[in-house]
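Appendix B: complex inputs.
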Amino acid sequence: DAGVIQSPRHEVTEMGQEVTLRCKPISGHNSLFWYRQTMMRGLELLIYFNNNVPIDDSGMPEDRFSAKMPNASFSTLKIQPSEPRDSAVYFCASSPDEGPKADTQYFGPGTRLTVL
Amino acid sequence: GENVEQHPSTLSVQEGDSAVIKCTYSDSASNYFPWYKQELGKGPQLIIDIRSNVGEKKDQRIAVTLNKTAKHFSLHITETQPEDSAVYFCAASRWYKLIFGSGTRLLVRP
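Resulting structure:
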């Protein structure tokens, strides 16, 4: 079975540019998460979608970050404009559980973002 | 909010020996405790988890124990193999929001 799919795997961009990260959750999973991993802060939850609806976006750092889930098989995380401090590995995860009990989460391979 | 502390930060063992990684959590309402293995350049892989109504769970060479009174849980890997070398993360949650420990880099020497 295919796991969570993310693209691109690596992204290098210049400060001020728009960056779009993409995710396809595991088929049949109705919960989707975006995480960010840095050496300083570890793994942090950015946003949680359930049935394509954002449930918790309290982890989104600032207005430069936005996420969408137009359908059950696709989500995007957009950064506009990007800044060097956004450099990190961004993970998408999905869960077969729903609502507040969506704690069993399966991660994708991540997108390593470098903002110059 | 929830805080999860993980020790040690690095662990080096000889192939065939056992490895133990420990985590403590602060929120007594936490009821789900997964462990993830992350290899270089890959995403965290869920390897075992335990819920608060269980004290111990085993899956082949790995086991997790939970002490809710003391608010700590541990990962035990027996008969370690070089392919067990990776960074291991513990996490705790009450609902969907996983709070991760800082990770343990395990090196298994052949």
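Chain A touches chain B through 24 residues (CB under 8 Å).
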